[in-house]
Amino acid sequence: MHHILIIEDNPDLAFGLRNNLEIEGYRIEVAEDGNRGLARARVLDPDLIILDLMMPGMDGYRVLRTLREEGNDTPVLILSARGEEADKVLGFRLGADDFVTKPFSLMELLARVQALLRRAGLVQDREATEGTLRFGDVTVDTHAQRVTRRGRDVPLTHREYRLLLALLERRGTVVSRSDLLKAAWGYRGAVASRTIDSHVAELRKKLEDDPADPRHILTIRKGGYRLQD
């Protein structure tokens, strides 16, 4: 049974979400504000977090930022009454996996929850069968989700690791930014495409001898990116 943590300060909305998700067979816990939600996320290790953005005290952005900085890669579905592009961009840059604008359709929310959980399971299964991948002097152990370069561990964020895997799976071919968003974020849209560039820049800093003149992670003008040995 999947365990979902809902961090939502509106008691009526939280109650409705809890009831409907429990009917679908999920185990649910609700936290009424950002501080409690962050504390429960650390203890529970849920399969998915549904996170409201606008909360008193610690808002959803701060909760999300803190979780990702601590290395917590639990999928996060953001709920927000604000649907502006800038809000979505910031959410995805901080590590959100999906974004739903209030008011929303319950059926849509349930479908997105199922999709996020399914994606997380597929990634795990795929990585477990691949074993060890290499390019240049970089080795990726997909069983341990460990990246090393010249024998030394390279600490990658959850998003950087997913992006690297997406490039490795398509090595030698040009991968568009939108395809990388779909593969590494599960997000189908162009709103947050610029976040790909910043993550690629971080990968180059960690994996290339000269990030300004990369040898392996190449930019293809008007195309996207290509990883080569």
Q: Indicate the overall shape.
A: elongated
Strand order of the largest sheet: 2-1-3-4-5
Class from helix and strand fractions: alpha/beta
Largest sheet: 5 strands, parallel
In whole angstroms, how far apart are the ends? Answer: 41 Å
SSE order:
EHEHEHEHEHEEEEHHHEE
Q: Can you count the beta strands?
A: 11
Unreliably modeled segments: 122-129
* Percentage of β-strand residues: 15-25%
Verbal overview:
With 229 residues, the protein is of the alpha/beta class. It is 45% helix and 20% strand. The chain is built from eight helices and eleven strands. The strands form three sheets. The protein has a five-stranded parallel β-sheet, sandwiched between helices. Strand 6 (132-135) and strand 7 form a beta hairpin. Residues 122-129 have low confidence and may be disordered.
What is the element layout, followed by pairings?
Layout: E1 3-7, H1 11-23, E2 27-31, H2 34-44, E3 48-52, H3 60-69, E4 76-80, H4 85-93, E5 98-101, H5 106-130, E6 132-135, E7 138-141, E8 146-149, E9 152-153, H6 158-169, H7 177-185, H8 194-207, E10 217-220, E11 224-227
Parallel strand pairs: 1-2, 1-3, 3-4, 4-5
Antiparallel strand pairs: 6-7, 7-8, 8-9, 10-11
